[in-house]
Amino acid sequence: MTEDRKNILTRVFTDILEQMAFMFGDKASPDDFRETTEPMLRAQMTYRGNLCGSLSLAVPEAMCPELAANLLGTEPEDAGERHIYIDALKELLNVTCGNVLTAIAGEEPVFDLTVPEVSELSDAMRETMLNDETTVYLLVDEYPAALRLTVEDSA
């Protein structure tokens, strides 16, 4: 992935975090992500259109109640049920994906997006993200996060 697309991904994601969840993201290193021992969740979705690919977001599960509370305008203890914060993580990824695609391809192309899926981040997927140059790393309110965008031309 080009540096321009990495910058777009980082900018769009941090803007959405601020606007939707009142959380702040700063660039980080792979070591920030690698060294966390907290259980992590991975949200992923795919898209098809002029471009095809996927977007994945991995974050510590401990961050998700805060994310959900901020999205819902409630307290973290009120958004602590797993199904609530999983839905919030899916929504964050969905909005990010749509905005990233618009920033990359413009407003004219139409994309088919899959429904985001969330699973525990496996050791194998963590290594895939760490070894892939398409991954960008952020600290979201001190929580390590990784975003991995894959892009292929559909032609």
Question: Any idea of the CATH topology?
Answer: Chemotaxis protein chec
What would you call the shape?
globular
The total number of structural domains is 1
Give the N-terminus to C-terminus distance in angstroms. Answer: 18 Å
Q: What amount of the residues lies in strands?
A: 25-35%
Helix share, percent: 40-55%
Report on the structure:
With 155 residues, the protein is of the alpha+beta class. The protein has one domain (3-150): 3-Layer(aba) Sandwich (Chemotaxis protein chec), CATH 3.40.1550.10. It is 42% helix and 29% strand. The protein is built from five helices and seven strands. The chain has helices spanning 3-21, 30-34, 64-72, 82-105, 123-130, and strands at 25-27, 40-48, 51-60, 112-113, 117-120, 135-140, 143-153. Strands 1, 2, 3, 4, 5, 6 and 7 form a seven-stranded antiparallel beta sheet that branches. Helix 3 (64-72) packs across helix 4. The two termini are 18 Å apart. The model has no long low-confidence stretch (mean pLDDT 94).
Which helices and strands appear, and what pairs or packs with what?
Layout: H1 3-21, E1 25-27, H2 30-34, E2 40-48, E3 51-60, H3 64-72, H4 82-105, E4 112-113, E5 117-120, H5 123-130, E6 135-140, E7 143-153
Antiparallel strand pairs: 1-6, 2-3, 2-4, 2-5, 3-7, 6-7
